[in-house]
Specification:
Layout (H helix, E strand, L loop, with lengths): L1 H21 L4 E7 L3 H13 L8 E4 L2 E8 L2 E11 L5 E9 L3 H7 L6 H21 L3 E9 L3 E11 L3 H18 L9 E8 L4 E9 L13 E5 L3 E8 L6 H13 L9 E4 L13 E7 L3
Antiparallel strand pairs: 1-5, 2-3, 3-4, 4-5, 6-11, 7-9, 7-10, 8-9, 8-12, 11-13, 12-13
Length: about 300
């Protein structure tokens, strides 16, 4: 009996040491959602900018982010960990710590529903509502393997944040149209964006906004545009419906699909657009085909 009591006492002491001192968080909230890790990542960042007294998001990678929210004199640390359940569902663990009252929370939580718990659940629920609202405005469907079309094109090169891409397209759509139409150049397909560099750490891209044209000696010369041959390649394909500002949600869906199916890809997506954002309308009727090149 003494040995059993000693073992129980040792285990209890070990648990209390872990729970009160070693455990790196005060409270854990877990939920699942039908979307990609990247879409959750981007929505957390956008939601964070709408909060008062929140610090900029710190990111280890797409699946692990740190956020701090200050309410009155208390700072709360949120560690977001996103994992893939399958091609369409992600699991999110939110590890929350009250940096000013961590020990008191750990002692109180097993015995009552604390204000800290209620505040944490409300904050995470607020995020989930924002995420669901966003998901209602987009539709991403992964099609599978396909091949992009080869074409000659006129293009303008740009750099910026992912979220600025649609604005860059709109600003240069009229420019490309006016230069080409002045010489009666007919487009040989719909506009597309070729991503030449994607930095997932700071959400920045370099890209070419391209108008397909027939190659000829009479193409207009203008210092603002360039011409080149785009060569088609094998790629994973998805269709996207929604505002082109967030068409990168399809990029993340293709990245998750590639990882879950052991397909090696080059993270330089190609977007082919079938709607003109300048005309407005129901964004769920806007269509784009998104391709992620497959490494041979």
């Amino acid at each position: 009996m003494k040995k059993i009591s000693a073992i129980i006492g040792f285990l209890l002491a070990g648990f209390l040491l872990w729970y009160l001192i070693i455990k790196p968080y005060d409270y854990l909230v877990t939920f699942k959602v039908k979307t990609s890790a990247g879409t959750i990542n981007q929505t957390i960042k956008l939601w964070n900018t709408s909060l008062e007294n929140s610090s900029p998001i710190q990111q280890d990678n797409l699946a692990n982010l740190t956020q701090q929210i200050k309410i009155k004199d208390t700072t709360y640390n949120y560690e977001w960990s996103i994992s893939s359940v399958n091609d369409s569902i992600s699991k999110v663990n939110v590890y929350v710590t009250d940096l000013n009252n961590s020990l008191a929370n750990k002692i109180s939580i097993p015995f009552s529903k604390t204000g800290f718990e209620k505040r944490t659940e409300q904050t995470v629920t607020d995020f989930i509502d924002k995420l669901k609202e966003h998901l209602k405005k987009i539709k991403v469907t992964v099609v599978g393997k396909d091949t992009t079309r080869s074409t000659y094109c006129a293009y303008i090169s740009m750099k910026g944040l992912q979220i600025e891409k649609a604005r860059g397209m709109m600003q240069n759509y009229s420019l490309l149209t006016s230069i080409l139409s002045a010489e009666n150049i007919t487009m040989n397909g719909t506009p597309f964006v070729e991503i030449t560099n994607w930095n997932t750490q700071n959400d920045s891209i370099a890209y070419n906004f391209c108008f397909p044209v027939i190659k000829s000696d009479s193409l207009p010369l203008d210092s603002r545009i360039q011409y080149k041959q785009y060569n088609g390649a094998k790629a994973l394909k998805a269709t996207y419906n929604g505002n082109y500002i967030t068409s990168d949600r399809a990029w993340y869906a293709l990245v998750d699909y590639a990882e879950n199916n052991n397909i090696k890809i080059d993270k330089k997506p190609l977007e082919v657009f079938y709607s003109n954002p300048n005309f407005g309308g129901d964004v769920l009727k806007w269509k784009a085909e998104i391709y992620m090149p497959i490494k041979e």
